[in-house]
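Ticket #4471: structure output looks truncated?

Reporter: J.K.
Steps to reproduce: submitted the chain below (381 residues) through the standard prediction queue, then opened the result file.
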Amino acid sequence: MGKGKRKGKGKGKLRATFRKKHESKQRVRDVTRSFREHDPDIDEAPGSERVSGKGSLSRKKTVVGTWVEGEEGSFEVVPEVDSTRCIPGRVLAVRGLISEVVTDDNTVYECATRRLLKTLATDDRHVVVAGDRVMFRPVNEREGVIERVEPRRGVLGRMVRGRRHVIVANVDRIAIVASVAQPALKPNLIDRLLVAAEASNIEPLICFNKIDLIEPAELQTLAGVYGQLGYRVFFLSATTGFGIQRLVAEVAHRQTVFVGQSGVGKSSLLNAIDPSLRLRVAHVSRSTEKGRHTTTTATLIPFARGGYLVDTPGIRQMQLWDVIPEELATLFREFRPYVNHCRFPDCTHTHELDCGVKAAVAAGKVDLRRYDSYCHLFSGD
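Returned output as attached by the reporter:
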């Protein structure tokens, strides 16, 4: 899908925006020689030039397709495809220029992406991502070309170098995996992932893994804060199997993505959920207590009990995408009852007087650590 300005009817020939420099301008050589040979009258030369926007380097092109409502109420262009030659599928993984697409009859195709999709303007780093529902044209029994990406929902993404990096699309739940030890627990990363889940309307599950390495009572305070906010909290051990069956019941018949930093045991949990997967795992470094990347790309894994499990590479930082500071407070559940008690309607809840949220923190109604996490996010740290 690509950007465009909606005009007229929602189907037919539409003006869509393309990426800058999707066509390269040829370099003109020997300009000085040509000038001397033709000796033009400089005095009669035009002093200005009007660019119509219809040349070969125009960013606007006509595309046959349909306007659809995308994320955040925006409208995007979905190119029209020949339904007699294309079949629907879902992207299991993207490996370089090739996407693995599975059909309804479980046939897997290796597909390239149509050039039109690559040149349409978009905020995303990648045109096709794991979880996408697509229409593709088979060229033989195992290969094809993706002709269209259907509108997305349940998108989990982050900002990387000023653009959105979509980790996975079309998921119902996000399992936020955090290890209680080896590597050390990072509550602020959990908070960032919770904000991303709230912004995308994805139901979060908070999974504390490696519970066998500590006394569970040590986690009661932190887990209690999340539990009081209505988040589902799981104490798990991929090594001993503790809590695994409860998690299996939650992910069955769902599209669940497992996210967390390297070494927290995402692949190990998936192996415990479905022993037939046999995903590659690695031990945490003893010297640095940091995990090692064993999963290199987000991959959809069909679950025997229905739905999909999504294994993802480890993330060290989560920079939020398309979340402005002014709306950040609405993504913290505990702030919502108190934002209307602020003296100023544009209160940032950081330094103002008569702030309802700050008063709630002082009264112990809002957890201080969660408030500190909000302040760091608000300041862009």
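Triage note (M.O.): checked the attachment and the full token line is present. The first helix runs from residue 31 to 38.
Status: closed, working as intended.
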